[in-house]
Specification:
Keywords: Membrane, Transmembrane, Transmembrane helix. The protein has about 130 residues and is mainly α. Helix content is about 90%, strand content about 0%.
């Protein structure tokens, strides 16, 4: 059970990290290589959706239950704020989209990190009898 809960947060941090990497590297690749097919695929909208939808799912499946069970609200606030920022970024282009997406993915990463720490802390307290 503990490993399953932590695995969701690890996957959420991995996907958030991919999103951050994508946000930072795609513009650099476009500058360096132009709009070649490979770079064009990275810049396409479906890549954004492919990263965004699983992130929503993982916030829902990992952070929400921990918030309810442990009353750890900070990860939930960060996760929801991150998802909202990423949602808003779909309405922008250029540097505004980049900054909103980076902030959103960073918030979601931090939310999963705090969530996993809350789970570990609760597990340690439960096993030590405190």
């Amino acid at each position: 059970m503990l490993k399953s809960r932590l695995a969701k947060d690890k996957l959420g941090m991995f996907l958030s990290g991919l999103c951050i990497g994508h946000c930072l590297l795609t513009p650099l690749a476009l500058i360096a290589f132009g709009t070649s097919t490979a770079v064009g695929v990275l810049a396409s909208e479906w890549v954004h959706i492919a990263l965004y939808l699983p992130m929503i799912l993982l916030v829902t499946l990992s952070i929400v239950p921990t918030c309810v069970h442990l009353q750890a609200y900070r990860p939930l606030v960060l996760g929801v704020a991150g998802i909202l920022l990423m949602t808003i970024s779909f309405g922008f282009f250029g540097i505004s989209e980049l900054l909103l997406s980076l902030a959103g993915a960073s918030f979601v990463f931090a939310a999963h990190l705090l969530n996993s720490r809350a789970i570990k802390r609760q597990h340690c307290q439960a096993t030590s009898g405190a």
